Amino acid sequence: MRIRQAAGSGAPVTGSLGIPPRVAASAPGRVNLIGEHTDYNGGPVLPVAIDLRTTVRVTATRGAAVTRVRSATYHGIGLFEARRPAPSDHWSSYLAGVVAGLARAGLTIPDVEIDVTSDLPVGAGLSSSAALEVAAALALSEFVDSRLAPIEAARVGHWVEAGFVGVRSGIMDQYASALGRAGEALYLRCDTETYDFVPFAEPILIVDSGMPRALAASAFNRRRAECDAAYALLREADAALSSLAAAPASLLDRVRLPEPLGRRARHVITETARVRAAVAALRSDHRFAGDLLVESHRSLRDDFECSCTELDWLVEYLMAQDGVTGARLTGAGWGGCVIALGDAGALEHARGRLVYDYGQQFDRRARTWLTRASEGARIEL
Asked: What is the pTM of this model?
């Protein structure tokens, strides 16, 4: 095997396993500007890829009969048989799922050695799992000379999340990671999987609250079941209703769903309207209406009940800073991250004070990143 050289250096490219990778691919995390919990309800979303990435390197095994997964970022070595990948509690289950997903797509993946590196925080709501899935799907398909298109890698990644790992999420995270573009936001209609791009060049401040999230063990699946129940009741009144997100506000007023189903449905319906308003504003004058972020957060806090004290405090703190135009939780909630938009200088100033003040308030360490819409998944080697 010919060893590729790192661009601009004479040293061979190697992973943490100490052997040269044959194939490498990377994929970014994402932040969702607006459209939270609308994706699996058939509504629109508006995410951007960010400049934090996960890279997956694949090499042939040294005669081992199992796939070995190692990372300098994640803990513990994972082992599984590529012929019989099965879910587990180890983080390498996502990679076993990708092998299973590629088999469903007709690709036979041999046992290999996989090395993962990432600067994406785990559990913060920035789609570290989607980035891992998409990067692995691209790298492993390239390894067997059957490179997937980015959108195909996204579909494999979504199957891993929903069909293998067991988190009933929508398609947004994988699509944003695979298809992202620098300087643009992805306007994705999740019911039809159609999409286009709208200009978005504004800086984004991401604040990780330090509150851990574990969607598979959280209220996420319960919220989804509540949304399904709300849709079923609304459809009894309107048999032509295609999804919960498609329901008009007037139907919700007429049917009067029992609580908490009424609040869940109200969030989805109003959030859908906010996504469309944001897209219209970006197309007309290339500016995001910050008030929509605040309205979204209030709806997530009160109607969807997926916020927490720490996230609410961060939103209020950021909105009190001069030059910040909008803030809300992002990434499903129950901990994780908040985003804020506004003047770049104001965001930079706010992040410096915030870390100290937040630590004094909650005895937790916040992490911050100032980013912009960035490029999606790609083959690196």
From this structure: 0.90
What separation in angstroms does the CA of 276 have from each of 62, 271, 289, 293? Answer: 52, 9, 11, 13
Task: Give, in order, the Cα–Cα distances in Å from 221 to each of 14, 55, 212, 217, 228.
Answer: 40, 29, 17, 8, 11
Cα gap 123→212, rounded to integer Å: 6
Told to judge if 302 belongs to the known catalytic residues of this protein, a careful annotator would answer no
Tokens of 247: 């329901």
Residues 49 and 189 in one domain: yes
Which tokens go with 294?
Answer: 């605040």
pLDDT score, position 218: 67
Give the number of other CB atoms < 10 A from CB of residue 103.
Answer: 14
Average confidence score pLDDT of the chain: 91
- Report whether pLDDT(314) > 50: yes
- Structural domain harbouring 101: 23-201
Active-site option among 111, 115, 173, 208? 173
CA 203/CA 51 separation, integer angstroms: 12
Name the token pair of 305.
Answer: 């009940």
* Same-domain status, 279 and 345: yes
Average pLDDT over residues 341-348: 96
Binned at pLDDT 50, 70 and 90, residue 87 comes out as very high
Beta strands 23-34; 112-118: pairing state: unpaired
Number of domains in the chain: 2
Helix, strand, or coil here: 235? Answer: helix
DSSP string for 82-112: TTS----SSTTHHHHHHHHHHHHTT--PPPE
pLDDT-wise least confident of 60-64, 88-92, 156-160: 60-64
